Structure formats: structure tokens, C-alpha cells
Amino acid sequence: MNEKGRVAVFLSGRGSNFVSLYRDSLKTGANFRIEAVVCDRKKAPGLKKAKRFGIPAYLLSHCEFSSQAEYEKKMIDLLKQHRIDLICLAGYMRIVGESLLRRYPNRIMNIHPALLPAFAGLHAQKQALDHGAKASGCTVHFTDAGTDTGPIILQRAVAVREGDDEETLSRRILKQEHRAYPSAVRLFFSGRLTVVGRRVLISENEK
Length: 207
Ligand code: GRF
Prior knowledge:
alpha/beta, Rossmann fold, seven-stranded mixed sheet, two-stranded antiparallel sheet, globular, binds 5-O-phosphono-beta-D-ribofuranosylamine
């Protein structure tokens, strides 16, 4: 059997997407494993969860480094040590810098709780409600130097209901996030994703 894809998850908070990736990775037929978790906030519940699952978990506080470059150097050392193939940002609240992007081109994914390019940035669910959108959802995309601007891999839509508030809409979107992210990671490690300019082509067959 081929070796499984090696994933690092970066998070800053609750970590429910991390948990959904982790659970998927344990299923029969999964083609990836979560080898490391990197977190920038000491109190993030996601960090505790990683430790509970026995996954190597690293707290890397930005303030302990003299520059973004130093911070990323430390990250890259960790990623090399774990021979990481793909980084999954899952509620990671920092911008990914140049050195990491250069080192992992089209190998950093992010999940966003809206149908991009609509409602990029913070509080996407509130933005959708405030705008009066009738549908929203989630997007898994490759990360580039912008905020939520990279090539789109998968999207899943949900209806916005009349009585929705930020919490109910977020909950409905989150359910779809937990499906979309593992699917995108599996597609990646099946060799089925090809990035052509802004487009991510998904081939029918595994490579
Ligand atoms: C999710 O809504 C994700 O789309 C966004 O941040 C949130 C993280 O949630 N980028 P969790 O920490 O995975 O529960």
C-alpha cells in the first residue's frame, strides 16, 4: 500500500475542522494522516484536542519571535521534521507569509465559511446575513498571498433562512465545512487536483 499523505493542521481556536479531518483520516480507505498540529494561541481548545488524540502539537506564539520570517523559519523546521506534504489551515487567524507560501506552493489549503469570492475576511456569516444573501456556504481553497483569494477547490452551499442569526447560520455552514474539508484533502492526495491559473481542475480518476 502507498504511504499516506502527511498533513499538518494550523489552528487558533476551537478546532472542529481539525477534528473532522482527524476523524476522516481514521476511516478505512483514508489516504492521509495528520502528523502535526501547529497553534498560535495557548488557550486554543484545538491544541488540547490534538494532545488528547496523541498528535504532536506545537504552540508557536508569534510574539516569541523577532519577525514573521523567524516565526516561519521555526514552522518550516517543524514541517520538514514531520515531512509534511500539505498544510491545512483550519481557523488559523494569522496571515501566511512569503517563505511558507514559497516553500509549499499549492500545498496550503484553507477553509472559509462563505461562498468565495463573496464575504471574504472576518465574520463571513454575519456579512452574508447583513447583505441579505439567500444562500451562503463554505469554500475550501488553496492559499495565496491575499486574504481568502486563492484558487477554489470545493464549495458547498446552504440556504439562508429568514429566521437565521449568526449562530444558526454558522452552525449550518459548519456542518458542510466538516464534509468539504476532508473531501478536498482526499482529492489532493489522490492526485486529482490540478491548478491552472485561478482554476482547480478535478480529474475523474486517481493518478
Ligand atoms: C470555521 O468556520 C472556518 O471556516 C473558519 O474558522 C472557523 C474555524 O472553526 N476559517 P473551527 O476552529 O474549525 O471549529
